[in-house]
Amino acid sequence: MGKTNLETVLQDTLQAGHKICVPYIMAGDGGLSILEERLQFLKDCGATAVELGIPFSDPVADGPTIQQAGIRALNEGASLSAILAQLSSFQHPAPLPIILMTYLNPILAMGVDCFAKKCSSSGVDGIIVPDLPLEEENLVSDSLADSNIALIRLVALTSPEERITMLADKSEGFLYAVTVNGTTGGRDAHANDVGVYLQQLKTQSTVPVLAGFGISSPARAQEFASYGDGVVIGSKIIELFQQQRLDDIRKLIALQ
Ligand SMILES: O=P(O)(O)OC[C@@H](O)[C@@H](O)c1c[nH]c2ccccc12
């Protein structure tokens, strides 16, 4: 697949001398009617793109903060089709590129082709599917390529060398470097060798390398962004929205 729109926006950001920051929020947390305003706020804070979670009943990779956000969103009636409909009803095009984070099941339930077309007409630029292994990607890859939607691959600290090479080769949009062994959520400590891991990935990947999982302070965001090309921050952003600490969200997103 050629360069996706997402990749172009990310590369332009780097070329302008900035690091990339992708906050994650759960779609429907607080109701779908606030989604457009939240995206605009994140853009105004300096976010490069947004990762938008689709709430799901069995979120295996998610820690407690994101699980609870998912439960709130499901209670508000959010679903994959309602979220896509909301995105396409925006008054203006989405203020910044949108990456959907969804498990495989809702995609298969909707039908892969229908999902890819709806994503494309709703302004979605990329997707992350954490329970879709490399070996099963052909389930979705043709439909996504037809709609020019980037399939973002995740690499883990424990991924063997060969697998990292395969993932780095195939990567579209960006390569998601998971920086912990475990589920999402804030942590005080990361392993010491994360810097080496990110620098290594950067030499192997043709797309930007973003670090994510457990980043909850501006200092850590800055540090990880300096090894790679930027960061993804989820649980902490969700907590700060819950506490209405908008200034702290601004500080977390504003990377040097
Ligand atoms: O919440 P954290 O620890 O800041 O990590 C980002 C993460 O939430 C987001 O990218 C994400 C949410 N759910 C996921 C499932 C798999 C991979 C990534 C994700």
TrEMBL record:
Provide the alphabetized UniProt keywords.
Amino-acid biosynthesis, Aromatic amino acid biosynthesis, Lyase, Tryptophan biosynthesis
EC nos:
4.2.1.20
UniProt keyword annotation of Methyltransferase present: no
Which GO molecular function, any one, fits this protein according to its record?
A: tryptophan synthase activity
Functionally, this protein is described as follows:
The alpha subunit is responsible for the aldol cleavage of indoleglycerol phosphate to indole and glyceraldehyde 3-phosphate.
Spell out the subunit comment.
Tetramer of two alpha and two beta chains.
What this protein is called in its record is Tryptophan synthase alpha chain
Q: Which gene encodes it?
A: trpA
